[in-house]
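retry 2 of 3: previous attempt timed out while embedding pyridoxal-5'-phosphate. Reduced batch size to 1 and resubmitted. Inputs unchanged:
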Amino acid sequence: MFLQDFPPMGVYETLFKFQAASGSYMGDPGTHPWAQGFPLTRQLPGGPEIPLSVSFAASELKYPAATGNDGLRKAIAKYYNHFYGSKITEDNVGVFAGGRPGIFATLLFLQKDVDVIIEETEYTPYFDKLKLLNRSHRIVPSNPHNNFRPSISDYRKAINESGKRTLLIRSNPCNPTGVTWSGDALKEMVNLASGSDRGAIIDEAYEFFNGDGPVSAMQYISNIDESNIFVIGAATKGLQVPGMRTGWVIASKRHIEVFRNFSSIAMGGVSRPSQVYVTNLLDLDRVTQARKAVVKFYNEQRKIYRDGLASCGMELSTGDGGFYHWGKLPHGLTAEDFNQRLFKHKAAILPGTLCDMHRRGAQGPHNHFIRFSFGPIEPDAYQENMRILKDCLKG
Ligand SMILES: Cc1ncc(COP(=O)(O)O)c(C=O)c1O
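retry 2 succeeded.
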């Protein structure tokens, strides 16, 4: 083989196992895609309509601009300035085909001497990206001992131990735990990541999905042009359109130029019709309505599944954000065994071991933990879902 072998990212690994065991594609009608990280792609109660078509001129069939089209970049800058009081311009915005490529590009160009600092329990592909790019990294403890809630002093300790220039990476709200830094805690995190020797990737894919309302580090970054902070956003979750493959990085102008040059070599920009579509979604009135509807709908879903899973003996450690429940299975059940039971019902969860940034497998503390996604679940599936969960969580 001419190519270096590389396994699929954990969510896809589970998808392929599910397909092999059940003969179905997770997400198809009749399946229960609790392993997957997508939101409902239909209009939510009280939310805006989700357009099913997009019109554009022939000029939109030309190549896109390398960093993203002006219309979308301006709409994104306006969005953050309006909701979070930032003062960015389109020159601080780089558009990518989703959140993941933006994160990957940032890590790809990260100077070799910079140490990456990451929590022990995090978004599955961070591990793969760091491994693929051969990045040394330090782990901040996030495990049952601290109930998956590291503090700012844990981060400070890791930075001090490193002694090098450091880049923090965190999903906020955290996938899988739902633990969210907001208010003073987020402000402190931004301060910690500020200064010429410090930086951060703050991944806000779940920005809208927070108990008290949407949350962004942009509120606390005083001058992004003087920082090494990269705020990741995407239309994938909050705007409910993962299929549009549109995400962005907010960063200093100089860093955005690097992304422009990267795009000119390796990406060629992002589909212009997708960019036109997402620009329309960011209309301020529309997005105000969308933010409210997402918070309300998913707060309710978080609550009913919190109660439901707890009633089956799950010990939950979920925070107030995201659309996942994170918890420990009862009766010493492992996540792998639980999935074998679930596959028979065309259901699956994401095994916690895939969120372990040490990747210790069955030897690690994540072996009995699962990430249960309520993102794609219709409310009327609740009874049926609880029936399957109860059946598979029996001792
Ligand atoms: C923490 C986190 N970051 C970023 C993303 C963005 O993904 P995409 O590349 O699909 O926009 C996701 C989606 O699962 C996520 O969970």
